[in-house]
Amino acid sequence: MSVLVNLIKLFILMAPLTGLCVETKMCSYSTYAWNVNTKSVTNYHRVSHPYSELDDFEIDKTTSCTVCEEDQREIILQGVKPFKVCKKLHRKIESALISAMNRGKKIETVIGYRVGLTRGELDSMGNRTGFSHHSYGIAIDINAAYNGLYDKCLKFNSDCRLRKGGRWVSHHPMSLTPSDIIVKNLRKMGLKWGGEIKGWQKDFMHFSPDGY
């Protein structure tokens, strides 16, 4: 009986220590906000909280990908600076780009996961309050130096205004077009190309689930 009592006492003493051994899954990321008044980024800060406390706005409704660094996976392509995307899309994006490169398509740069409040409604200070697709790791920008973002561009012509990246020239080998192998491969895996979106913007470097 004394042995049983001693075992119970030992269990009671060890219980708090065993609890310390259970690691709490965390969600961590660095972010900022885009201010439409100053047209600049502001409010850089670091976020870290238990994964179980994720807010709805930290989860993409279409893919269930999150803004958490812990949910991103790195892609390494030959001659390209490593970048990260959501773990749910990681293998498909990697395969699509490697396939394009194996067929002779040159890729110089890719921007993937990058957290920022650059969409959605404005707060009282003029800051955007919604995360971009890049924030969830579900968007990539390819060869931006040759595939710029334009506004005032319902249909591409000389009146379109370049806002970011380099000039898009349809016949340039580094520029993306509807028939380009990169566009075709990423379209097959479920991403839409920003060069084909409706409205007043054309984002030739950009791919995401809805193209925006």
Structure, explained:
The chain is of the alpha+beta class. The protein has a single domain, classed as Muramoyl-pentapeptide Carboxypeptidase, domain 2 (2-Layer Sandwich). The protein is built from three helices and 13 strands, in the order H-E-E-E-E-H-E-E-E-E-E-E-H-E-E-E. The strands form five sheets. A four-stranded antiparallel beta sheet has the order 5-8-13-11, with helices on one face. It has a three-stranded antiparallel beta sheet with strand order 10-9-12, with no helix packed on it. Helix 2 runs antiparallel to helix 3. The longest helix has 19 residues.
List keywords for this structure.
212 residues, alpha+beta, Muramoyl-pentapeptide Carboxypeptidase, domain 2, four-stranded antiparallel sheet, three-stranded antiparallel sheet, 3 helices, 13 strands
Question: Topology of this protein?
Answer:
Blueprint: H1 2-20, E1 26-35, E2 40-50, E3 72-75, E4 83-86, H2 90-102, E5 110-111, E6 117-122, E7 128-131, E8 140-142, E9 149-151, E10 161-164, H3 181-188, E11 192-193, E12 202-203, E13 206-208
Antiparallel strand pairs: 1-2, 3-4, 5-8, 6-7, 8-13, 9-10, 9-12, 11-13
Helix pairs in contact: 2-3
Structure at a glance:
The protein is of the alpha+beta class. The chain contains 3 helices and 13 strands, in the order αββββαββββββαβββ.
Helix content: 10-25%
Overall structural class, as computed from helix and strand content, comes to alpha+beta
Tally of discrete structural domains: 1
Low-pLDDT stretches: none
Gap from first CA to last CA: 71 Å
Could you say what the CATH architecture is?
Answer: 2-Layer Sandwich
